[in-house]
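hey all, quick one before standup. I had two proteins in the batch that finished overnight and I want to keep them in one place so we stop losing track of which output belongs to which input. First protein below, input sequence then structure tokens straight from the run.
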Amino acid sequence: MTIKANCKINLGLHVISKREDGYHELETVMLPVCGLYDVVDVERGEQETICFCGSGIEVDCPEDRNLCVRAARLMQERFCVGGVNIRLDKRVPFGAGLGGGSSDATAVIVAINDIFELGLDKPALAELAAELGSDTPFFVYNTPQLCRGRGEVMTSVDVDLRGLWLAVAKPLDDSVSTKEAYSGITPKQPERSLVELLKEDVATWQATVVNDFEPHIFAAHPIIKNLKQSMLDAGALYAAMSGSGSAVFGLFDRAPQLMFDERIFVHVEKIE
């Protein structure tokens, strides 16, 4: 079974409070980016083992941190499914705040559910995915979602950006770890909810829809700050960092003309 595991962007991100379990209480709206994806192929294996191979961007991490392998192992432990072979063609950059690894893990869970005919519905799949990461359950539904808690408590929202152009850019030689992102954050209660703000015209978002990670990430990584400014200079109606970075995105009312050098990964698509 082959799945196009698309990534996501965050429309605003509020870090509201520090929780007793060590996580942070969040409020963010996640939106799927359909044209930027990894290709995940999962099939039954002959042995009772998990075999993983990759192409594209190198997945350079030990097996116990490989989200595809962890997802397969979780399904084996819970449902006694047999061996699986996983092939990943990695296209979404790492350390970008785009959720590429989480999307890959969810794709493995969804594929195993289908291949082994487990009959799990979306809430059950999302509950399993949540064991692997905070934004992983989002990709089960893969529609605009208001995400609360640590990101796993979701409510469907109506955000219609069809007809606009989306540009995503990431410096290839600069990434932001989750640890770095949260080490510089000061949680605070937002004055208005994101759902309320996103009901207003996109042209108003730049002044109201904020990502709380931006100030300290921009101070430490000026290239990311410059990418956002480049989006605005190119005519973006709205530009922001996605998640904890280092990717930045812009929303445009026409196809953008972006002049980045080879050190910047760029993806552009029209939202359909």
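OK second protein, same deal, sequence then tokens:
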Amino acid sequence: MAQDYGSQSMVDPLRRVLVKRPDAAFAVDDPARWHYSGKPDLEIAQQEHDALVGILRDAGAEVLFHDETQLHLADAIFVHDPALVTEQGVVILKMGKELRRGEEAVIARRFEELGVPILYELHGEARAEGGDLLWIDQDTLAVGQGFRTNSEGLGQLREALEPLGVGILPVPLPYFGGPEACLHLMSLISIVDHDLAVVYPPLLPVPFWRYLRERGFRLVEVPDEEFETMGPNVLAVAPSRCVMLEGNPITKRRLEEDGCEVSTYEGNEVSLKAEGGPTCLTRPILRSP
């Protein structure tokens, strides 16, 4: 029987994916504390999330739900961040945003229910969030070093993944909006084909930009006016087939001109208010050619 987990790619066809539909915890009464731009409208957020799930299913993915109630964990809908799925099991991460502590144990239980073995759990002072972890290829993981992922997290990821033959590429991140803002590595780049990436150059570290060019990546640039509306946050459901937020027409057109098929969803409540796009809302469990 074929293995039903394993995802050491950003672009191989998405076969199984975990999501969490917004619930009462997401409709926070104190949005400033969560660094949200406003209180999300739960009903509309759920409709927007349902539309995204429909796109994923239309792309051929089996959509699994993470339904356990997580009171006071508003960001738990962003299931990408507490875990990293490999060919040998899942690495349970440790959240850098203090308000998100506790998501890790809950998602670990869900993976156990799904029969995905726990390969490693970050511990001690290690911090790492999934939004900082970008598969360049099957054997190379770029790890953003910012306010959400620290050097101890980098070291433990290296310890966890070295037996799998995975090399770690550290990528220093800029200060940008400071400790409270959410700037992940994947806020600046999404890989949408084996040699194609969407990037926001003004915040991309020069050594990493050079590395991508040396690896032969073509780079689709996001204009300044679409950075705030998450133009760089693009989920590949297959090579050159991707999903992004509505409201980024220049980036969408540039992707299409580079041969991509692009689907969009409206995410004013579920994404824009809470700083989390389609990659954040999905945790790939299985990608396979």
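Flagging for whoever picks this up: The helical segments are 42-58, 103-113, 151-161, 206-214, 224-227, 249-257, 268-272. The first strand starts at residue 14 and ends at 19.
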